[in-house]
């Protein structure tokens, strides 16, 4: 029987790549649910092409358009609650969590509560609620398989040894478009420059996060929760070619890495077919050509977001949720042209420094912290000197 898959965020960069993978896997996977915020035309096309019975759209404005555009037998759900309902209703085995931001948290949680296996692209969910998600997944028998390329690499490398044999985890980072820029130039970078990622083609939020290196900061927190490793065991390495997707160092000094072309279809497919491997559709590395792989330590001065990520990871509790929310809000302000690039991390730092951390927050408290951080960004924008 084919694996029954739900794709949350199907109209996005990861969602669309996932559907290419599904098409290539032919009869092995069937899509039983799709969800997105807007883009009803694309959602309807996807539903028709893959014969999907359940489709949810968060933006209620377009529910009629979607209903008319979908085949008549399609069940349409709307609003944020519609997404959660979709996850609770569909007969599914696997949910690809590919919504961007904390907006993806309720549906991801609903899928874990049902004990479904999760392909986790939506790192923000884990950053915000890692200490609630991980025990819930264990209790419900839901396997979290990372889709983030670095975490997929680590997940695969961890199969080479036992948890207590792990010495360090090296998260690689391409360094983004501003890897070689000086700080003054970077402070004034505009949106177009921030969206010119040298290696990966991704949605706008994560592309800006790659430019600030907040993406790597979030990934440090993601790795800490997902793999249960101490923050002190995690290192970031700049690797501009993005061929070595990450590495695990074992106590005997062996480093186990996963390599491949920078194409998200590989980790998406691995998450879908795990624990099996099947032929993939991403281009292969061409070792008949000379190639160089470079590595360098990160610059925490030019990329203060990375330092903030380590600080929030070490602090734990509600701090990662606050960092994430402040970042989501400031990235939106930058995309809207309301603040220069240099203020993204500066405002996030300001908000984090004002936060009174909760040690063991509940989900409701985490969402309150998220809302507080967003308000605080607006307040800081008006009154702070940063
Ligand atoms: P994207 O902006 O291209 O797509 C986001 C998707 O989420 C869209 O389908 C959108 O409609 C949906 N969405 C947004 N807000 C929503 C809401 N409130 N309710 C319902 N749906 C909503 O983003 P992306 O680049 O595909 O990234 C998705 C996630 O995967 C992010 O968490 C990102 O960090 C992670 N990720 C992406 C990549 C990549 O290569 N793109 C790599 C690693 C991890
Ligand atoms: Mg990544």
Give a short overview.
The protein is of the alpha/beta class and about 375 residues long. The chain has 16 helices and eleven strands. A seven-stranded parallel sheet has the order 4-3-2-1-5-6-7, with helices on both faces. A four-stranded mixed sheet has the order 9-8-10-11, with helices on one face.
Can you describe what's shown?
The chain is α/β, with parallel strands linked by helices and 386 residues long. It folds into 3 domains: 3-146, 3-Layer(aba) Sandwich (Rossmann fold); 149-262 and 282-299, no CATH class; 316-386, Rna Polymerase Sigma Factor, Chain: A (Orthogonal Bundle), CATH 1.10.1740. It is 47% helix and 15% strand. It contains 16 helices and 11 strands. Helix 11 (214-227) runs parallel beside helix 13 (304-315) and helix 14 packs across helix 16 (363-383). The structure holds nicotinamide-adenine-dinucleotide and magnesium ion. Nicotinamide-adenine-dinucleotide is lined by residues 9-15, 36-39, 58, 83, 98-100, 103, 121-124, 148, 200, 202-203, 205-206, 264.
